[in-house]
UniProtKB/TrEMBL annotation, chains A, B:
Subunit structure: Homodimer.
One cellular-component annotation, GO: cytosol
Organism placement in taxonomy: Bacteria, Bacillati, Chloroflexota, Anaerolineae, Anaerolineales
Species of origin: Thermanaerothrix daxensis
Name by which UniProt lists this protein: Fur family transcriptional regulator
Key word Transcription regulation present: yes
Keyword match Transcription: yes
Keywords annotated in UniProt: Cytoplasm, DNA-binding, Iron, Metal-binding, Repressor, Transcription, Transcription regulation, Zinc
GO molecular function ontology, one term from the record: transcription cis-regulatory region binding
Length: 145, 145
DNA sequence: GATTGACTTGAAAATGATTTTCATTTATAA
DNA sequence: TTATAAATGAAAATCATTTTCAAGTCAATC
C-alpha cells in the first residue's frame, strides 16, 4: 500500500526513482529549487542558485536533470522571446500559462473557451486544427499595485 | 505624389528605402524570397535558397537583413519548438498564426473572440492581462486530403 | 557494514546558431 | 564621374546546448 507523499518534492523524487533514476545530491537540489519556484527558471539561473549551497554542481548536470524532469512531465518548457528556454513545474491536464511581465510569476489557467475560437477558425480557413499554443502576459495581483 | 506600389516586393523595397536603407542586390533577393514564401523560413534556408541564384551571399547578410525587416514590421518571427526562429511576412493589425504541421504553410486568422477568454481569466486570477501569444497547429486544406 | 557495477557526475571539448570585427565593395548623392 | 558612408562577406567571437570520457556515487548484494 502506498502512502501519499508528504510534499511535492517527495512526490517528484518518488516518480524519478520509480522511473529508475538514482536520487543523487545534484538531482535533489535541482528538484527542490524547481518545486519551490513561482516562476520559470533558465538553466544558468538554476546553476547559479543551486551552487550557492552546492558549489560543485556542473552546468551539464542541470541540462541533463531538466531533460529527465521534462520527460516525466514534471516540468514544462516556457519559450522566451530570445529563443532560450526556461523551465516551470508542470500542471495536471491541459492548462495555459499566464506570466507576470514584471516579476515573472507564472500561473496556470484553464481556458476551455478556446474550443469556440478553434471551431470558428477551422470554418474560416479550411484547416483541421490539431494543437495550440497560448500564453498570456500581464501583471500579477501583487505587481498591479 | 506617390503612385501605389506595383506589388508587395516593390512595397517592401520602398519602405526600406524610405527608412534610409540602400537597395542592394542581397537585400532585393532576400525580400523577393520572403514576399513569395507561403511558409516561415529560417536563416539557413534563406541563405541556401538565395545562393542558388546569387552564390556570393553571406549568411551574416541574411541575419542583418532579417533584423531590418523585423524592425520595420515587414516580417515576423515564428518560434520553433527547438528555440530557433523562422521568419514570415507579417500581417496588418493584430492577427494570429495557423501553421500546417505537414507542409509548414502559415495562414493568419483574426481570433477576436480571445477577448472573452482574457476577461474570464482576469476575473479568475486577479492578473491584469496586457498581451498574448497564440498559435494554432493543424493540417491545411491541401494536406487534409 | 563492505563490495561491486552500473548510473551520474563534472570538466573539457564539440557543436550550432547568432553576433561582432574589419577590410573591401557598392549604392547613391553631389 | 567621383566621393563617401552604408552594406557586404569572411573569419573570429560569443552564447546556449550537447557530447565525450574519466572519475565519483548510489543502491543492490554479499
Amino acid at each position: 500500500m502506498n502512502l501519499p507523499p508528504l510534499n511535492l518534492t517527495e512526490e517528484w523524487l518518488d516518480r524519478l526513482q520509480a522511473s529508475g533514476y538514482r536520487l543523487t545530491q545534484p538531482l535533489r537540489r535541482i528538484v527542490e529549487l524547481l518545486v519551490a519556484s513561482p516562476r520559470a527558471l533558465g538553466p544558468i539561473e538554476i546553476y547559479d542558485l543551486v551552487r550557492v549551497h552546492y558549489p560543485n554542481l556542473g552546468l551539464v548536470t542541470v541540462y541533463r536533470t531538466l531533460e529527465k524532469l521534462e520527460a516525466l512531465g514534471l516540468v514544462q518548457r516556457v519559450h522566451q522571446e530570445d529563443g532560450c528556454h526556461r523551465y516551470l513545474r508542470a500542471t495536471q491536464g491541459h492548462q495555459h500559462l499566464l506570466i507576470c511581465t514584471r516579476c515573472g510569476r507564472a500561473t496556470y489557467f484553464a481556458g476551455d473557451d478556446l474550443s469556440r475560437l478553434i471551431r470558428h477558425t477551422e470554418e474560416e480557413t479550411g484547416y483541421l486544427v490539431q494543437d495550440h499554443w497560448l500564453q498570456l502576459y500581464g501583471l500579477c495581483p501583487a505587481c498591479r499595485q
